[in-house]
Amino acid sequence: MSETEFAMSLKDGDFNADEKVTQPHWYERYLQPCVAELLGTALFVFIGCVSVIENGESTGRLQPAFAHGLALGLTIAILGGISGGHFNPAVSLGAWLIGGLNIVLVLPYWVSQLTGGMLGAALAKAMTTETRFSNSTGAAFTSITSDAQIPSAIGGEIVMTFFLVLAVCMGAINQQTKSPLAPFCIGFTVTVDILAGGDVSGACMNPARAFGPAVVANYWDYQWVYWVGPMIAGLLVGAVIRLLLGDRKIRLFLK
Predict the structure, then answer these.
(1) Against a cut of 0.85, is the pTM above it?
(2) Residue pLDDT, tens place only, 64-83
(3) Which of 5, 125, 173, 197 has the smallest C-beta neighbourhood within 10 Å, fewest atoms?
């Protein structure tokens, strides 16, 4: 077909509108993902906080572990197609480092996630009794009670968050290993991390999950641990995938 015939065919409508390549609307590219991150983080933190507040010591770490894991998996399955389903600043950092997130969206994602964390924690406070909320310190992280615990807590947060961010990046972004089961693999990663390391640091793995309850309950002891550990893990995952585990598009060397 000549260029003239091709142009005439387009003019005459030989191609369906659905087949024409169009750029996404600016709302879908920039604002809608942030809305999804805010809502998803709020729902995740809400379920996580309520599970801790209502659990007390009746089932130990079992109830919070499954509540956090299932809530995260379901939320990613529902909203992941819009924003990638990060709901965690450390995950967004790792995703950006391997090319899975536009740098323009990194800061808006973080703001949305932290805002969602506060909203979820506030909703948890609103629906639970004052006594249970106070007894659990609003589901804020209280596992660290002395400076002697800091090295093991930071180490635990780095390793557990590394596992989580690796599950996200390899299961949902890296082409070689992407899986339709990624949402639930990621959720179960949170579950096993809490079951394994809940007594070490509380198994936060998410600065937004730590920040929201800290604001609502006004509990800031050792809050920085839950930022430093997860963000270091996000950096490490980005480096490992870029250097060793990524597909040809992501990997920097030996392509």
Answers:
(1) yes
(2) 999 999 999 999 999 999 99
(3) 5
